[in-house]
């Protein structure tokens, strides 16, 4: 009975993440073991160390790109949750348009809305849907929501973390 109470604290998402990490580490370990065995038999030359700098820089570009998009999505969804507010009739939203261009419905008093830096206004839930498709720009003017420097930094950080967890050896 004690095992069931311990498992109820673990969400299904965390089990999937732990399984992915376990598989990744196992593959990394087996690859490292195979390279070591082949090198000790003289069948494999570890010339990878010479090309590691060049290979590492290209891996930084590739490794972090997909996960960086997911991290940026989480940041934008959190920002959307924090920065949204209830529309009031006197807040001046009507001069920027009273219809949400995502759902094409009128924005009424009390609706949760999000005003972007470009001054366009959307329903919070509609904008969440827009972000969930990894669109990090305004649906109307395509102004970027995330500065390019932040995207590059996030990609480098995620790639560095991935390469630290799964080193090329």
UniProtKB/TrEMBL annotation:
Keywords associated with the record: Metal-binding, Zinc, Zinc-finger
Keyword Metal-binding: yes
GO biological process assignments: protein ubiquitination
UniProt-recorded Gene Ontology molecular function terms: ubiquitin protein ligase activity; zinc ion binding
Residues annotated as domain RING-type: 100-142
Pfam families attached to this UniProt entry: zf-RING_2 (PF13639)
Alphabetized InterPro entries for the sequence: Znf_RING (IPR001841), Znf_RING/FYVE/PHD (IPR013083)
PROSITE patterns from the UniProt entry: ZF_RING_2
Name of the protein: RING-type domain-containing protein
